[in-house]
Each structure stands twice: as structure tokens, then as C-alpha cells.
């Protein structure tokens, strides 16, 4: 379970990491994408048979060696993913190790830190990636987990973008789904 | 009579052969478990069962750290290794247990808390923590789960109850799992090692470090099998070479081989009939039998050149009584080992008694049919006489007796002054250096430090045992409590469950449920679904029943073990110390058992010879026993239950030599010196070789046997001389 948690977070954040700088020309998603610095995101979680989705907003900061996924609304939650492990702090509280050894092992063992830095080619080792017809001029990819453990959680992910990832829809194995949309990247502080 | 005896002996050999064939084909005939060396009933039944459960659970664990040039390669290699091990059919990865754990936590989400007690439960922190799970994009949350578990207790408990660990570094993955069958079974070892080695060959660029009893057991079994082969073959070659030189007839060699083979078949067949499996160490102890059983053939064959190949009935008559005495005393010496409650010794006793009996029966019934009078009998008799002649010049004199006596006394005094016992089981077996390095690599990468110590909680009912465990944990500081893997944290007592549920109602569901339902926009009822689930395997493995009492095992980490926690209905258990204590106790019993063995032998000797003077037969073995203790001690080899067990062999073999010397002196019959020398020589050579073993128990046994038998042989001639003088 912890492994799946770590994997899902890592992958989502990895795709965010594929965001490129503002450039009107679309970049081949399998080329090494430039690593962005900070960008705002909106995360909307849809549950089956529930009318009201759960919406969260925040800022993601991506570097070569770590990712900071900071939810600012409706509650302050900072998740940091690094090779040393995953930590989470709530309401500016002290960071707590997340997932103990299992989740961290899964995260680092899955090569997701490569994905987080925008390396889709490396992601092929863990995910089967197919190219779907473009939508509105954006490239459109579908990622299907190769491993059984991840597949128990995620059925597939659809990613759209041009110079980087602009949106992501995660279809969970249980039928629920999640949309993540990214604003234009801002300059790093 | 002899004919029927021969038919019965042949029939028994065939039956034993069939038993061996059937049992070996099942793959469960041989055992390599170190625990089999331990006393069976030395401990309280609950403690005994708990130590066995703890050992089995610990021995079934496997950890393999796979490291490659990058994480992707490591993940691929790890997945391939997982497939290879799972494909063996005896390995289950821990990831497969996740679903059972999730079901258990979901079913018990309202009876468990992360905190050490219900009083410490913080409802506000639990509500806040669940928001983190809810809005972070990683939690496997569904609408159904939120309806019945709006505070995501299932996920939170999965996080907080797991022991803290260390992240695995970049470029590595850690595989963990358990074996579904005993790690000490040879077939399981072959399967696991086969799968692992095939994977190693397919991934040459990847490094792997292993932790697991199965790897140590496989190393030990491989070493023991290799030693058995080398020592057994070398011993056999020495014996056969000596026979060929003395008898100068291939038939004599074949006849000796036949007796030795019959003894081996009889011993193994009987052991496999009596025991579910035979420990491989039995073969190392039992290989000494080659030297003993070959003596029976040797003594019969010696009557050929000595008597000019008299009729076989006459030759059998000459050796029947001394061989019977030898067989009975050797059998009794080995049978005394059964007095120890050590499964290994009981197996050795059955193995050896059946072996010497079969070899004796073969010698007096079937061997005569294999040794007809040769055409060059006169020349062979002359050769025998030439070899015998030098022994006539070796005689005990008063001066020699005084010198040897003083020397023996000095050695005994010096040896006993340096006497040092060894009862620590951790020093009995040296593991593979390569595996130790691999273990240190896994430890460095994961902080995983296996500790054999545990807290044993027991009571008339499982609930009582849980309550005892909880009470001990409650008294520990938080840091030490985190170093204990307690089943009651996952499956608490009824009282603790009720308290936890009350705390959840008062401090979480009461103040925060309505607010949470509004946030989610759904109707929630945390108690609506009463799901049933079995405890996950790692929890059920820590529980058991013995002697009408329920018990719980809580493995302790190194820090908690140092605190030696215990309380009412709960004991701190260090298995190695317990076993060492038991071994020390048995060492004290050995003294009594040796006296008992001498008493048995004395009765046999008196019954067959009907003379008090016959007790001089026991002088050689007695001095052999004393020197077998003193000489190894003099050279710094510690004494243990294994070296003391060797004294029984010294008694048996020493009496063999003395009996033939005594018989020859009493009956004024054919000279027996060459035969006894050959007898002793082959015995010493084969048994002394055990001292070359790398395994301390076998080495200690071999050295003591070698020293003791040499001494017993030397003093047996003196005893016979003394006995014959008194008769004159």
C-alpha cells in the first residue's frame, strides 16, 4: 500500500516535472524536457457516485534531486520527495517520514526520480507509453503501468502538453479519477 | 542356525535398502537444521514452542538488496529476481501480503490507534493527518472507503504501525518475502539457490546482497556434504589400503567393503525407519562407524591365515564371542548417547547401534561364504606371520609402565588445568564469510538488524497473553517500545480494543465527523460495515498455543533487547543464551552417563567372561576417556557436549581392542597383535579425520575420539598383559 502511495505521488509529480518553459513550439515529449522550477497546480479528485469533487490548489517546485508538492488550499500540506525518502508536514508542522522503508524503496526502485526530472524515455522501463491522437495541437500520451503492484492502483494516465505537461488525468483502478492542471511555470525563487 | 541368520541378515539389508530408496525419493530424508542439535525437553513447553515458532518465522525470512547502475536497471533486475524466486513455489513476496494487511486494518480500524495507549490518542491530530492523506495526490482513496472510513484510519494505521525503516538509496531495490516451507530442507534450499543462481547468471552487471537463514543453511549443508564425501572416501581408502597390504587378496578388500556397506545400509535404514528425517551431522558422526565395522570383517578374515583356513564354522567359533562382546559394548556405548535429550544424539545412537549390529550379523553369517580357502594359502599364512613377528618384541616392562604412567599423569594434570568448556551455540557453527559481508551490506542500506531475542507473553487465553504483552509494552519508554514488533499492536486485547473504540468516539468521531461529512459532501457512517478479516500472516506467525497455554512472541530490536523487558506473564527470551544454558546442563549429565556406560560394559563383560579379572578390559578405555578430555584441553580446544559425546565412542572402540587382547592372553590362542593393531589403526585413521572438519562440533568430536582411541589402544595391551599375569 505504501509503495503504491509513493509510486502514485512520484509519478504525478514526475509528470509535472516535464513542464517546459513558455515556448509556442511543441517539443517532442520523448526528448529530454527542460526541468521547470515552480508552478501552480489545481488538483480535482472525482469519486464515483459523489457529486462534489475534492479540489486542492498549490504550488509544485521541481529540482533535479527533489520535488516539493505544496497543497495550500484547503489545508496546508507539504510533501517532499527526495532520494532519501518522502516526508510530509501538515499545517507547517514537523515533517513526518512517509511510507517508511516500503514506500521509499518502491519510489526509488521504480526510477521515478528520473521521471520527475522530465525524462520520459526512462519512464518506459516502468510504463508502457503510447501516443494518442493530438488534442488541440498538443501531444497526447497514455501511460499504462507495467508492474502489477502499480496496476492495482492506476489503470492508466493520459497526459497532454506542448512544451511540457499541461494536464494530466489519472484513471484509478477502482473507477475514480483525478485531474491535475498546471499553470504556466513561474521563475524559481 | 547360521543359514537362517544369513537369510535374516540379507533380508534386513534389502529392507533397509528399500527404506532408504523410498525415503530419499521423497526429498525429506535429510535435515540440516541446527535446532535439531538442541536438547528436546530441556525447556518449558511454552518456551520451547515459542522458541521454535520464533526461529521458524525468523528462518523463513529472506531479504535481497539488488543494486545496479541506476534505479531503472535495479527495478528490472529486482522484478526478474522476484519472478525467479516466486517461480520456485516456496517463496511469497511481502508485497503479496499487502491485501490481507489492508483488509485486517480496515476491519479493525475502529479498534486500533497509532498511539501506545487509548489515553494518548489525539483526535485532532488524527483528523488533521487524514486531511493530508485526502488532499495529497498519493492516497488510494475511493468513495466507498470515505463513506465508511472518512478519517482514512485504514491508511493511517498502515503508516504508523509499521516499524520505522530507512529509505533505500538510489540504484537499489530491496526484495523481501518469506518461505512457505522450512529453510532447512535441502529441497527448499536447492530450489531457492537454483532460482537465485539462475538469476545471477542472467544479470551479471547487477550486485546482490542476501540475508536469510536459507542461504546459511545451504552453505552449511554444502559444507557438511562435501566434508562427508571427502572424509568418508579418505577413511575408506585408508582402511582398504591397509587391508590389501596385510591380506594381499582383493577378496579380503571386497569382503571388508561388503561388511562396511551392510553396516552403512543397516544404520541408515534403521535411522530413517525410526526418525522422520536424519540430520546430516549424523553422517559425520556415523562415518566413524566405517572404522568400527570394518574391524569385524578384519578379525574374521584374520582367522584365515592364522588357522591355515580352517573350516568356516571353526573360524566363526574363534571370533564369535569376542565379536559379540565388541558389538554389544560398542552398541551400548553409542546407545548411551540416547540418554541425552538431544535429537541428533538419539539419531546417532540408532544409526550406530543398527550399523554395528548389521555388520556383526553379516560378519558371522554371510562373510564366511565369501572367504573360501585360497590356492596360495600357505604363502599368505607365512606373510601374516612375518607381519605379526615385530609385535612379539613389544612388551610392557616395569620401566616403560612407570614412564608412561608419569607422562600420562603429567598430561592429565596440564590438560585439566587448561580445561575450558564451550556451551555458546553461537560459536558452534561458523557461517559463510561471503554471506556475512552481504548481510552487513543489507544492514548498512536498510538499518535492518535481526535480533534473535523476543518477549514471550503467555496466559490461559490468547486475550490474556495480549494483555500481558500490552502491560510490558506500556511500561517501556517510547523509544524502546518502537523497537518491539508486537502482535498486540495490530491485534490488541478486548479491553484495549474497547478503550480504543471509546477514545475514537470521544475524540475523533464526536467532534469532527459532521465537519468531515460536509467537506466530502457524502453521508458517512464509520461503524456501518462490520467487515471480518483474518490477521495478516506476520501477526498470526507471532501467536501460538502449547501445553494448554496461549502465547505471543514479540521480536525485540537490539535496543529493546538490552532492556530485557519482562513482567507478569511475560518473559524476556534470548534463545542463544537459553540453548547455551541447556548445553551447559547437559555437560554435567555427561559425567553420569559415562559412568553408566562403563557400568553397562562391565555387566556385559562379567556376564560373558564370568571373572572379575575380566574387568581389566575396562582399564584401557577408562584411560582413553581421561586422555580424550585432557589432551585436547592441553592444546586449547574447548570441551563441549560434542567432545564429551565422543567419549562414548572411545569406550566402545577401546573395549574392542581390549577384548581381543584379553581373549588372546586368556586362551593362549593365536597371536592377535597384528589384527588388533590393524583394528585400532583403521579406527583411529577414520575417526581422527573428523578432527579435520571445519564445523566445531564435528572437529571436537573427531579430535577427542582420535586421542581417546589411541590411548585406549595403547593401554589395552597393558590391561591384557595384567589380566593374563594374574591367571598364570
In brief, what are we looking at here?
Helices cover 21% and strands 42% of the residues of chain A. Chain A is an alpha+beta fold.
Strand content range of chain B:
5-15%
**SSE pattern of chain A:** HEEEEEEHHHEEHEEE
- Give the oligomeric state: heterodimer
Mean pLDDT of chain B: 84
Helix content of chain A: 10-25%
Rg of chain A, Å, rounded: 15 Å
- What CATH first level of the domain at 394-439 and 576-728 in chain B would be assigned? Mainly Alpha
Q: How far apart lie the N and C ends of chain A? A: 35 Å
Number of strands of chain B: 10
* CATH domain fold name of chain A: outer membrane lipoprotein receptor (LolB), chain A
Shape of chain A: globular
Q: Indicate how many domains the architecture of chain A comprises.
A: 1
Uncertain segments of chain A are 1-24, 100-113, 185-189
Largest interface, Cβ cutoff 8 Å = A-B, 59 and 49 residues
Instruction: Profile the largest sheet of chain B.
Output: 4 strands, antiparallel
Structure, explained:
Chain A is of the alpha+beta class. Chain A has one domain: outer membrane lipoprotein receptor (LolB), chain A (Clam). Chain A contains five helices and eleven strands; from the N terminus they run αββββββαααββαβββ. Chain A has an eleven-stranded antiparallel beta sheet with strand order 6-5-4-3-2-1-11-10-9-8-7. The longest helix of chain A is centred in the first third of the chain and has 16 residues. The N terminus and C terminus of chain A are likely disordered. Chain B is α+β, with helices and mostly antiparallel strands. Among the domains of chain B are: 173 residues, Up-down Bundle (Multidrug efflux transporter AcrB transmembrane fold); 199 residues, Multidrug efflux transporter AcrB transmembrane domain (Multidrug efflux transporter AcrB transmembrane fold, Up-down Bundle), CATH 1.20.1640.10. In chain B, helix 9 runs antiparallel to helix 28. The longest helix of chain B has 35 residues. Chain B is elongated. In chain B, 52% of the residues are buried. The chains are: A alpha+beta (189), B alpha+beta (728). Chains A and B meet through helix 1, strand 5, helix 2 and helix 3 of A and helix 3, helix 4, helix 5, helix 6 and helix 7 of B.
